[in-house]
Amino acid sequence: MNVKLNAEEVVELEMVAKKDRTPRVRIKALALLNLAGGRIISEVASVFHVSRSSIYAWIAEYGAEGVEGLRVSDGRGRKARADEEEIRRYILQSPRNFGLSQTRWTLASLAKTVPSLKGFSLSGVLKAVRRAGFRHKRGQPSLHSPDPEYDQKKGLSTRR
Question: 25 exposed, middle or buried (CB, 10 Å; 0-12, 13-18, 19+)?
Answer without folding.
Answer: middle
